[in-house]
Amino acid sequence: MSPFLFNVILFILLIGGMNWMNWKAIYNETYYKLQQKSSIPVGWASIAGASYILGQIILSVVYTDSGISILIIVCLSILSLFTAFLSINIHRYFFIKKNMEIVKRMFPEFGLPILERRGTGKKKKNMNKNIKK
């Protein structure tokens, strides 16, 4: 089977499947229920996005000869996200180190031992007294 014919069949199946899902959603009042909610759950949206990306990677590896380059792109993307995460935390560390007075004014418990913090200190002291007896 030629790739063009295979793609046409998949396209027709996609259009038919989306039409069927649309009819089911209309008659089950799914669209009305979605309009009543304030937002769509983020978990489902992230699963859909990740599934799309995974599907594109699998199709690219199967139907092209550039599997290695796709793997390199994925690794570089993960590395760039990791670098962004680290840079945020490093900048936060240097800001806190430079502006300790501002941070302590906003968060008075910052830098205190656990026993001296508000809320958790009393519970810990009571628990320690009970253990010693």
Describe the protein in words.
The chain is mainly alpha-helical. It has six helices and no strands.
Can you tag this structure with a few keywords?
mainly alpha, 133 residues, 0% strand
In short:
The chain has 133 residues and is an all-alpha fold.
Task: Set down the secondary structure blueprint.
Blueprint: H1 3-27, H2 30-36, H3 42-63, H4 67-98, H5 100-106, H6 120-132
Radius of gyration, whole Å: 27 Å
From N to C, what is the helix and strand string? HHHHHH
**What gap, in angstroms, lies between the N and C termini?**
80 Å
The description of the largest β-sheet is:
none
Q: Residue ranges: pLDDT <50 for 5 or more in a row?
A: 121-128
Q: Find the count of extended strands (DSSP E, 2+ residues).
A: 0
Strand content: under 5%
Helix content, binned percent? over 70%
Spatial shape = flat
**Helix-strand makeup class:** mainly alpha
Report mean pLDDT, rounded to a whole number: 78
If helices are DSSP runs of H or I spanning 4 or more residues, what is the number of helices?
6
